[in-house]
Structures are given as C-alpha cells and as structure tokens.
Amino acid sequence: MGKKATTAVDRRAAARAAWLKLNADRAARDARVEAALSDGMAVREKIVSAQDAATAERFKAETAYRAELARIEAAETEAVAALSDELAESVTALTVESVKMSDIANLLGMSLAEVRAVRRDSSATVEAEESLSTEPVPVTVPDAEPDETPAA
Predict the structure, then answer these.
(1) Which among 101, 107, 98 is positioned nearest to 119, based on CA atoms?
(2) How many CA atoms lie within 13 A of 2 on its CB side?
(3) What is the mean pLDDT of residues 65-76?
(4) Disulfide-capable partner of 94 in 12, 43, 99, 133 (CB 3.0 to 4.6 Å)?
(5) 119, 112, 64, 127: which is closest to 88 by C-alpha?
(6) Using one digit for the tens of pLDDT, what is the confidence trace for 89-147?
(7) CA-CA distances (angstroms) from residue 99 to 42, 103, 110, 124?
C-alpha cells in the first residue's frame, strides 16, 4: 500500500507541475497575444490616419482642379464671345459681297449650320440694336380717375 500511496502522490505532484506549467504557458501566451493586438491596433490607427490624410488631400486637389477648370472655362467663354462678334462681322461682310453661305462655310472651315447661326445671331443683334436706337417706344398712361360706381 505504501507504494501505491507514493505513486498517487507522485502523480498528483506531476499533475500539479503540469498544471502550473500550463498556466505559465497560458500567461505567456496571453501576454504575447496582448502585445500583438496592441501593435496591430497601433498600425491600424496609422493606416486609418494615412487614409484620412490622403482623402483630405484628394478633396483639396479636386476642389482646386474644379476652381481652375471653372476659371479656364470662364476665360474661354469670354474670349469666344469677344471673337464671335468679329466673326459675325466677317460673315456679314462676305454676305454683303454676295459670297454664298456654303462658300463662306468652306472658306472659314465651318459647317453651313454654324455660318447660318452666326449670321442669324448677328442679324438679331444688329436688328435689336437698331430698334433700340431708332424706334421710340410708345408709352400709355392709364386714366388717373378712379371708376366711380356707387356701392349697392
């Protein structure tokens, strides 16, 4: 019986040692997991921060691009409007010289529709300017006396 007791004590001691080793391994593993998670979270925060910074830079660049594009388009519109009057004068001068619209289109490298539009727009502008400067606008004044009808 003594040998059995010693064996049981030895087994309990071995189990206790294994349990302590297991707990020590678990604690070391838990510490390693916690350190890895902490490092991973720090890196993830850096990634999110870099992405946020890139998004902000992208927004600023896009805003600047759109502002520059609007400025360029406004300058183009202004230049085209100024030069359209000169083109209309040239088309009108050629028309006065009895040059056909199709010939004007070929000579200027435009479509016939474009030449007609330029001619039509310049005619409308000239007619509008002439009507403003030569034709008086009739003005009518309504009667100043109110309608006097007795109330029933």
Answers:
(1) 101
(2) 0
(3) 96
(4) 99
(5) 119
(6) 899 889 888 889 999 999 999 999 999 998 888 765 555 445 545 555 555 555 655 55
(7) 78, 7, 15, 20
The whole-angstrom separation of Cα 44 and Cα 106 is: 65
Q: Which candidate, 92, 97, 93, 96, places its Cα nearest to that of 118?
A: 92
Cα dihedral 59/63/68/69 (nearest 10): 90
Q: Count other C-beta atoms under 10 Å from residue 91's C-beta.
A: 24
Helices (H), 97-142: 101-108, 112-134
Phi-psi region of 98 (alpha: psi -120 to 50; beta: other; left: phi over 0): left
The HSE-up count of residue 68 (CA atoms within 13 Å, CB side) is: 6
User: CA-CA distances (angstroms) from residue 111 to 1, 76, 118?
Assistant: 119, 21, 11
Residue 107: both structure tokens together: 């000579």
CA pair distance 123, 115, nearest whole angstrom: 12
Instruction: Check: CB of residue 58 under 8 Å from CB of residue 89.
Output: no
Q: Which two tokens stand for residue 34?
A: 């916690």
